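Here is the promised in-class demo. Please do not try to memorize the tokens; focus on the logic of going from shape to residues.
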């Protein structure tokens, strides 16, 4: 049966409640796309379940009727992962948004998959703890979406990504059965680490309904610094020297000149517009160590020719300096109607060369690009400022992206450091992985979801 069949809709309403099954075009329109520019799907039927039991019942019904299921959190994804496919049912988990428990003795937090990332960190902070992964979208993204994309954030250099904090998952499998994977034990080597299979699986293997997360004690002190440079190479050399000095700061983020100008237009922080690179640096930990590291990082930045190094005097100034980086995407997005943001990643020592390559790939095609990102992780966000209504310009953007991807792979990099493959990058995945690894991934998908009902068309054709 089709998802729009009245008998199917009746059963969905019986499971989730009539108010939580959306079918009218005006209600379902916002579920037809995510944060990825120029990607739209057909209008789906949307179900907003309120519990794991309801998710399982919906998936069982979909499996029995052969209806594809596209799981969705807040739809902030940047690779088209939650864009609906033909004839699908969108299972949107935002009603399942509870932080269920914080356990300070075991340093864990249990939450439903629709909980907002920032709410998870806030719940941890209330106990003097913190949840380190901080994607730029954390005020809106769900923890289920973070797990499905293995999201990273500004603190990734020191603290890692979502995978490093997932201790357990509750997952509804493609046949509607419920699996509980992992536990609160710090050590557990019983069998395959199945939870890891679901982290980063982009909704193609199962629906995450609950998470058990590891927390850390909140660092007692933090120092934020902002340095500006006459060249991207000087900023990159600063990063290399900091790491070589055995300092692992929590944040080493950069903006290029174009991004810097857009941020200044938008946030009016008082940044100099005539510099080629800006580096946001942050160190946290024991107060004495933080003071020492901040002093040494400032010295290194100056030795590498930083024109200016500002050290935040207090939390308020730190937040203001961090705004320069946190507002980069919004600032760029104001410039043209369409913003195409990529997340290619290269080994850290290749980042400066890659930024130069991106600028040339854009300039030679008459395109405007701003690049910012996680310098300490080698993770770049080249952001093309364009207009999807201009077919010729879009063709040039895609051509530039092809060149950027080819160069990234030649440098030993990856097509995606944090946004996932989804629809946007699947054409490049085999090129990066090679036939054997790509086929192995497909066989995992076939083993778990033999009928291909979960998020069809994502990651693979
Ligand atoms: C302004 C902005 C800044 C961003 N900054 C960052 C950043 O710093 N780092 C980063 O990594 N990403 C970033 N992103 C991308 C995006 O926010 C993340 O990928 C985020 O994890 C998506 O969460 P979501 O709830 O919006 O998921 P959605 O976009 O709804 O879904 C994303 C994918 O996860 C799957 N999915 C969602 N929920 C579940 C679930 N419960 N079970 C199984 N599969 C599920 C979907 O099917 C889809 O494939 C940013 C996006 C924006 C718009």
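The designed amino acids, position by position:
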């Amino acid at each position: 049966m089709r998802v729009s069949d009245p008998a199917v809709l009746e059963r969905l309403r019986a499971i989730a409640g009539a108010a939580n099954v959306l079918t009218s075009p005006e209600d379902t329109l916002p579920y037809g796309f995510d944060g990825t520019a120029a990607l739209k799907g057909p209008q789906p039927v949307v179900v907003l379940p309120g519990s794991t039991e309801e998710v399982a019942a919906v998936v069982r019904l979909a499996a029995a009727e052969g209806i594809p299921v596209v799981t969705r959190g807040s739809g902030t994804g940047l690779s088209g992962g939650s864009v609906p496919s033909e004839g699908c049912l969108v299972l949107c988990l935002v009603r399942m948004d509870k932080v269920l428990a914080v356990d300070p003795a075991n340093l864990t937090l249990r939450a439903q998959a629709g909980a907002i990332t920032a709410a998870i960190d806030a719940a941890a902070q209330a106990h003097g703890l913190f949840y380190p992964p901080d994607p730029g979208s954390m005020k809106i993204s769900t923890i289920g979406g973070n797990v499905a994309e293995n999201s990273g954030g500004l603190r990734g250099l020191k603290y890692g990504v979502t995978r490093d904090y997932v201790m357990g998952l509750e997952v509804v499998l493609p046949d509607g059965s419920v699996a509980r994977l992992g536990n609160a034990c710090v050590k557990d080597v019983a069998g395959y680490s199945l939870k890891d299979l679901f982290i980063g699986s982009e909704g193609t293997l199962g629906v995450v309904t609950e998470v058990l997360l590891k927390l850390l004690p909140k660092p007692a002190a933090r120092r934020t610094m902002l340095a500006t440079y006459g060249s991207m190479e000087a900023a990159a050399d600063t990063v290399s020297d900091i790491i070589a000095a055995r300092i692992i700061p929590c944040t080493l983020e950069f903006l290029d000149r174009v991004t810097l100008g857009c941020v200044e237009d938008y946030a009016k922080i008082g940044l100099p517009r005539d510099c080629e690179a800006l580096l946001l640096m942050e160190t946290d930990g024991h107060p004495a160590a933080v003071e020492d590291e901040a002093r040494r990082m400032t010295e290194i930045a100056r030795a590498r020719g930083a024109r200016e190094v500002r050290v935040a005097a207090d939390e308020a100034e730190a937040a203001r300096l961090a705004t320069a980086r946190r507002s980069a995407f919004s600032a760029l997005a104001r410039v043209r109607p369409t913003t195409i943001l990529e997340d290619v990643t290269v080994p850290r020592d290749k980042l400066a060369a890659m930024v130069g390559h991106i600028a040339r790939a854009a300039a030679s095609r008459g395109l405007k690009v701003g690049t910012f990102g996680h310098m300490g992780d080698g993770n770049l966000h080249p952001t093309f400022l364009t207009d999807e209504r201009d077919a010729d310009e879009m063709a040039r953007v895609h051509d530039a992206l092809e060149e950027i991807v080819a160069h990234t792979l030649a440098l030993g990099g990856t097509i995606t450091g944090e946004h996932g493959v989804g629809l946007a990058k699947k054409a490049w995945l085999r090129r990066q992985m090679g036939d054997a690894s790509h086929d192995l991934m497909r066989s995992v998908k076939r083993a778990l979801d033999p009928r291909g009902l979960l998020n069809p068309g994502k990651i693979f054709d």
